[in-house]
Design the sequence.
């Protein structure tokens, strides 16, 4: 099967190509695998290598990532040490060398651990729809994700968290890496020892990463003592809709997410 | 079938080929260039048997489009032997009985090489991370980990001697 | 957070080879012009190391260096008769066929050497380093190289031999069902130590320690590696692998190596193995088969260790964290503390 590759020269021309049925290849972990098995676009793949989307910029407290930045590139960046555990949990070194931050936003459960982390970090996603660039808070992006597959993710940005306020855990079925049983990304800013503005995101607990609002509320204004942690753990799965898959059942995910949350908060 | 030109450096030699548009690097290595040591395992990026090194990073050649390799430096396992002398990793795998059926071996060695190129004193956990994307069915991984650590020690000793 | 440790044990007897058709294999040995040796087989080296061990057996029987023996095998157009490589039969069946063929080749080789040295062939021995000399008089010698040249250019003899392994098929006695399908059995015992996370059901195998009785470990490093690789596979079957994770429902069957779960390099236990040798009367240099059995005893050993750790008896594989967790919860419901 011969497939046409088109290296896009301008960001704003990409959505029109997508509308004609062309498929974006970011890192290639999903798209080229589909191609190898005879699935995929009507013969045209759009390569994004020439669009300059592979830069990481940290200006003051704001970090901006081009959509093509890979997990390996983030894991080498000393300014982003708090994200390294996330990157290093996404496949082996060869996968990390190609998996992109933009691609991870579209990865289906039980993948999408960077997306869950970005949700905890209150990231902003910049998308180009062919006419103009638009910014979406990541939660809005997830709600409209199906519709936005026809647009091009250009960049992702967030405010760097206070040192020590970002926590991450991923329960896996096979060590050191596998897809997720449960992923928890938590932003826990503190003021005077009390949690203020907690954001807890879960991966592999729904069709995309979700916020655990009730667990966050249980932490708000409190210190991370065992009673508070227990209260948050009790609420963690309230709005989750995990699925059965080859890694774990929905039942199992619901059983263990409170355990993993409690351990993450107590650490 | 549309053909496109690709040009990259492979094991220190420049290659210029016409390949089918949309070919993977794996298909070009095996089908066009007659280099069969890079194995076709799953075609999905989950087994690691197709691992090569591109610009110093381990990469899955089954998921790498050949057209995206233009201008890059690629190393396959065929490029490790110099003037008939085995690379210390190849030697260590042999002496350590770290290969049985051998299907995972080229990918394992290249994954290990890209680790040792960056880190001359890896810990056991570093080695485990380096091979975490490579599946082995025969050895139980233990002799592979031991062989990589042994090769690292050998290479450190050689560097000390030549220093 | 509670982690509980447990220990479990299991043992296995494993027959070498199979009963059907007499389990035949054939081997042909011949010398090249200059005294290297070719063993022609139809058996397959899958990576278990058949070619290495068969070269060892041939070299040992001929009395020549192992490096001078080449195994030529696995051409279905031309190869001699063989049942194949399975049932842990390779070392025993093909090894025995090679010994038979190599003995014949050696007797021709010694006949030629005897003529060249003008002695009786019964007075000769090989030194394993490529020479043939008179017993007690090492200076009266001829190289295998020159013996081969003499055979081929002077005496008109081929230094070659033929071998076959075949055993009478065993049929069950009609009254009792008694039969003897295997002539030798290898044995193993594995002790597994595990640590169970009682809140998540996750099982970590801390160690797999085994004793193997294999008749004779013809290549000790390869036997050790087979045991380690097999132990990993046993662990994999015990805790990970399935094509039907929701059996008997067929949903969510794995479709790739990501979903077909197997332990990774981060899941390895400590391996410790002891090999015991009680030579088999009918094995090549006493060897028995040790191929497939290495994945067997680790599985019930791990299941028993989990029972020892948390009192949960899981009798279906794989023993997933969910099965363990459900078992722990059921026990707690019956006897809450």
Sequence:
């Amino acid at each position: 099967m011969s497939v046409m590759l088109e290296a896009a020269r301008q960001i704003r021309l990409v959505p029109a190509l997508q509308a004609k049925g062309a498929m974006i290849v970011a890192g290639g972990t999903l798209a080229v695998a589909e191609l190898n098995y005879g699935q995929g676009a009507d013969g045209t793949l759009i390569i994004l290598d020439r669009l300059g989307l592979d830069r990481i910029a940290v200006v003051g407290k704001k970090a901006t990532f081009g959509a093509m930045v890979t997990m390996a590139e983030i894991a080498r960046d000393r300014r982003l040490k708090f994200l390294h555990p996330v990157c290093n949990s996404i496949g082996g070194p060869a996968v990390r060398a190609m998996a992109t931050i933009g691609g991870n936003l579209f990865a289906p459960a039980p993948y999408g651990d960077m997306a869950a982390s970005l949700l905890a970090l209150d990231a902003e996603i910049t998308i180009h729809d062919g006419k103009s660039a638009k910014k979406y808070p990541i939660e809005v992006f997830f709600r409209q994700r199906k519709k936005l597959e026809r647009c091009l993710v250009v960049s992702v940005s967030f405010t760097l968290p206070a040192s020590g306020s970002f926590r991450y855990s991923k329960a896996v079925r096979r060590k050191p890496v596998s897809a997720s049983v449960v992923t928890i990304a938590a932003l826990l800013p503190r003021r005077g020892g009390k949690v203020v503005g907690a954001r807890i995101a879960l991966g592999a607990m729904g069709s995309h990463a979700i916020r655990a609002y009730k667990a966050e509320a249980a932490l708000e204004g409190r210190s991370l003592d065992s009673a508070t942690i227990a209260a948050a753990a009790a609420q963690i799965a309230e709005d989750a809709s995990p699925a059965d898959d080859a890694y774990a059942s929905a039942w199992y995910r619901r059983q263990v997410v409170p355990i993993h949350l409690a351990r993450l908060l107590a650490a | 079938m549309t053909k496109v030109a690709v040009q990259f450096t492979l094991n220190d030699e420049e290659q210029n080929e016409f390949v089918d548009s949309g070919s993977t690097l794996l298909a070009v290595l095996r089908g066009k260039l007659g280099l069969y040591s890079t194995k076709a395992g799953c075609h999905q990026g989950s087994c690691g048997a197709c691992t090569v090194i591109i610009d110093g990073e381990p990469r899955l050649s089954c998921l790498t489009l050949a057209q995206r390799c233009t201008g890059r430096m690629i190393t396959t396992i065929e490029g490790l032997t110099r003037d008939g002398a085995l690379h210390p990793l190849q030697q260590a795998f042999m002496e350590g009985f770290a290969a049985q059926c051998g299907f995972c071996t080229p990918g394992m060695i290249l994954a290990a090489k890209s680790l040792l190129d960056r880190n001359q004193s890896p810990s056991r956990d570093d080695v485990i991370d380096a091979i975490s994307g490579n599946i082995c069915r025969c050895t139980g991984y233990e002799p592979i980990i031991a062989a990589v650590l042994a090769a690292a020690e050998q290479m450190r000793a050689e560097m000390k001697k030549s220093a | 957070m509670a982690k509980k440790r447990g220990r479990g044990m299991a043992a296995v007897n494993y027959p070498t080879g199979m009963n059907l058709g007499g389990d035949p294999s054939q081997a042909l040995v011949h010398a090249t012009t200059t005294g290297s040796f070719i063993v022609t087989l139809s058996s397959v080296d899958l990576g278990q190391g058949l070619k290495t061990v068969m070269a060892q057996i041939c070299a040992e029987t001929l009395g020549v260096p192992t490096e001078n023996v080449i195994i030529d095998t696995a051409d279905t157009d031309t190869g001699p008769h063989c049942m194949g490589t399975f049932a842990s039969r390779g070392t025993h069946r093909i090894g025995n066929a090679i010994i038979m063929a190599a003995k014949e080749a050696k007797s021709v080789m010694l006949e030629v050497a005897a003529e060249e040295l003008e002695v009786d062939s019964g007075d000769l021995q090989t030194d394993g380093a490529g020479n043939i000399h008179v017993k007690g008089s090492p200076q009266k010698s001829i190289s295998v190289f020159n013996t081969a040249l003499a055979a081929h250019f002077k005496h008109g003899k081929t230094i070659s031999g033929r071998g076959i392994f075949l055993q009478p098929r065993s049929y069950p006695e009609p009254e009792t069902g008694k039969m003897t399908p295997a002539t030798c059995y290898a044995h193993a015992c594995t002790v597994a130590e595990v640590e169970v996370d009682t809140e998540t059901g996750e099982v970590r195998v801390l160690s797999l320690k085994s004793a193997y009785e294999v008749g004779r470990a013809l290549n000790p490093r390869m036997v050790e590696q087979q045991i380690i690789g097999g132990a990993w596979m046993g662990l994999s079957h015990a805790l990970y692998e399935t094509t039907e994770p929701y059996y008997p429902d067929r949903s969510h069957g794995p479709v790739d190596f990501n979903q077909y779960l197997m332990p990774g390099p981060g899941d390895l236990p400590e391996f410790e193995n002891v090999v015991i040798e009680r030579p088999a009367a009918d094995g090549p240099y006493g060897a028995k088969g040790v191929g497939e059995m290495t994945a067997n005893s680790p599985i019930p050993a791990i299941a028993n260790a989990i029972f020892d750790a948390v009192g949960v008896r899981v009798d279906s594989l794989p023993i997933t964290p969910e099965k363990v967790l459900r078992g722990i919860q059921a026990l707690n419901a019956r006897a809450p503390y």
Summary: The first helix of chain C runs from residue 50 to 62. The two ends of chain C are 15 Å apart (CA to CA).
